[in-house]
Design goal:
The chain has 341 residues and is mostly helical. It has helices at residues 11-27, 33-44, 50-60, 71-95, 106-110, 112-132, 135-157, 166-191, 196-223, 226-229, 235-239, 244-252, 254-264, 280-291, 295-314, 321-340; strands at 99-100, 103-104. It starts with 10 loop residues before the first helix and ends with a helix.
């Protein structure tokens, strides 16, 4: 997924995202300059702003052509991005990450405690903005933050778990990734006052897109090179995060499953905990085994079905320019699926 989504190239949307950028910066200004600096760190580092783009574009399905977003829609877009950013602050602490978006991570620069508190501050600001948009949006953001936590905890519970099931994997990515993309679309629809059936369709589209996006992202960790990813490939295997191609290879049994289990399931003799696959040769062998088996293509087929489900949900509204733009974003993701194969 190297090329930018066509959704992000729309001129009207670019203008709205510029307004979102200004509102994001303003939303985290605190009385304490230091808190403002820490809370602004990743905002100033930039980003694609996919979630605000989905919120603004979903709201624009109210009209035949995309027009400039209202102030309330921009606030909805800001709120979902603040939830995303707050989760990144916490993720980087859990991963002991040193960089994020080419700049030092907050935890690397200021320490874990300040990173956690700044992440909490961003989530609180998102909730404050959500409350200003009504009780439904406020409740939705709170429920989504809970789903993000549930998805992440479920993933942590299955770290280095060779028995992780497909159901557990899908539930985890539904929480940690798809829930916020679904909420982004839903917030846009709610704030724009769209009919309920249209809001539900947009929500289904966002969730389906998020599921497919995470599956493809996980697959690229197995199939892509360091250069293509812009980060070390095989990171999930090193961290013991066993994703769909690993799960399906192990569940299929046979020689490939036994070989993969032997590569991944090394136990420390002292305490019985798992020893990470950190030597390049073992990691390369495990990735090659996965790439050479049927599980990669089967996982890509699953991602494609999620994308298609989202497109079907949105089909009744395809006459609007905004719905067409969302469909184009899904087509772009499908192209990424084909490229990954």
């Amino acid at each position: 997924m190297a090329a930018a989504s066509p959704l992000l190239a729309l001129p009207v949307l670019q203008a709205d995202l510029s307004r979102v950028e200004d509102a994001l910066r303003a939303s985290v200004v605190a009385d304490d300059p230091f808190l403002t600096e820490v809370a602004s760190h990743l905002i100033l580092a930039g980003g694609k702003r996919v979630r605000p783009a989905f919120a603004v574009t979903s709201a624009a399905t109210a009209t035949p052509e995309i027009v400039a977003a209202s102030h309330e829609v921009l606030l909805g877009a800001v709120s979902v991005e603040l939830v995303h950013l707050g989760s990144l602050y916490h993720d980087d602490v859990m991963d002991d990450a040193t960089t994020r978006r080419t700049v030092p991570s907050v935890n690397a620069r200021w320490g874990n405690l300040k990173a956690i508190l700044a992440g909490d501050y961003l989530l609180a600001k998102a909730s404050e903005i959500g409350a200003s948009l009504g009780t439904e949006v406020a409740g939705l953001l709170a429920a989504t933050i809970a789903r993000l936590c549930e998805g992440q905890v479920l993933e942590l519970q299955h770290a280095f778990d060779l028995g992780r099931t497909e159901e557990a994997y899908l539930s985890s990515i539904d929480g940690k990734t798809a829930s916020l993309l679904a909420t982004s679309c839903r917030v846009g629809g709610i704030v724009a006052g769209l009919p309920r059936d249209q809001i539900e369709a947009l929500t289904t589209f966002g969730r389906s897109f998020g599921m497919a996006f995470q599956i493809v992202d996980d697959l690229l960790d197995v199939t892509a090179t360091d250069e293509e990813l812009g980060k070390p490939a095989g990171h999930d295997l090193v961290e013991g995060t066993y994703t769909l191609p690993v799960i399906r290879t192990l569940e299929a049994g046979g020689d490939a499953a036994q070989h993969l289990e032997a590569l991944l399931g090394r136990l420390r003799p002292i305490d019985g905990s798992f020893e990470p696959v950190d030597d390049p040769a073992t990691l390369a062998e495990a990735r090659e085994l996965l790439r050479g088996g049927p599980a990669v293509q089967a996982s890509l087929d699953t991602a494609r079905r999620y994308v298609e489900d989202g497109q079907v949900a949105l089909a009744p509204y395809a006459g609007t320019e905004a719905a067409g733009a969302l469909q184009a974003a899904a087509d772009h993701l499908l192209a990424s699926v084909r490229a990954a194969a």
